[in-house]
Amino acid sequence: MTSTRLALLSAALPLLAACATTAAVDPGEAEASAMLSRMLSGQSAIDGAELEAALEEAAQHPLGARENPVRAAGPSGQRAYLSRLRCADLKQPEFHRIGSMGVSPYGNIMDGYAVTCPGSEPAEQTIHMDMYHAGHVESRAVEGYGITGGRSE
Asked: Where in the chain are the domains?
C-alpha cells in the first residue's frame, strides 16, 4: 500500500467510526439483535411471563407437535432427549434431523427430526424440537414412546 493511500485510510477511519457510533439504531433492529444474541447464547427469545404464557398455550397440543415442540438445551440436548425415547418394543428409535421447521411458539428456530422404530411402533413420526432452552431437560415422552429417565405422558 502506498503511503498516500495509507494516509487517506488513516484519516478516514476515525470519521467512519464516528458515523457508525452516532447513527440512529432502529428499535426493531435492536430487538432483533437482542433476540439473536439470546439465541446464540442458548437462551429462548422470550422469557418470564411471556414464556410462561407460551408454555401454557403450547400445552394444549401434543408434545413434539409444531405447536408444542420439545424444549432442549442445544443440539446435544436434542440428541440426548431423542436417545432416551423408546419404541413399543423397548428399543431406541432411529432419528435424524430433517432441518429447520420455522419459528417455534417460543420465538426461536425450530428443528424437525424424523424418528423411526423399525419393526415396531410408532413406525415413523416427525418430532419438533426447540433447542434454545439452556438448562432444560424434558422428562416427558412424546406420545407413542416411552422414555428412560423420565415419565411417559
From this structure: 3-39, 42-147
Burial (Cβ within 10 Å: 0-12, 13-18, ≥19) of residue 146: middle
Q: What are phi and psi for residue 92, nearest 5 degrees? A: -70, 135
Say if residues 70 and 115 touch (Cβ distance below 8 Å): no
**Other residues' Cβ atoms within 10 Å of the Cβ of residue 44:** 22
pTM value? 0.76
The candidate with the shortest Cα–Cα distance to 89, out of 124, 119, 125, is 119
Locate the DSSP E strands across 31-86.
70-71, 85-86
Provide the 10 A C-beta neighbour count for residue 54: 18
pLDDT 10s digits, 99-122: 999 999 999 999 999 999 999 999
Among candidate residues 50, 25, 30, 28, the one with its CA nearest the CA of residue 108: 50
**Cell digits for 26?**
432502529
Distance CA 14, CA 116 (A): 59
User: Is it the case that residue 57 has pLDDT exceeding 70?
Assistant: yes
Q: Determine the distance from the C-alpha atom of residue 97 to the mean position of all C-alpha atoms in its chain, rounded to a whole number.
A: 13
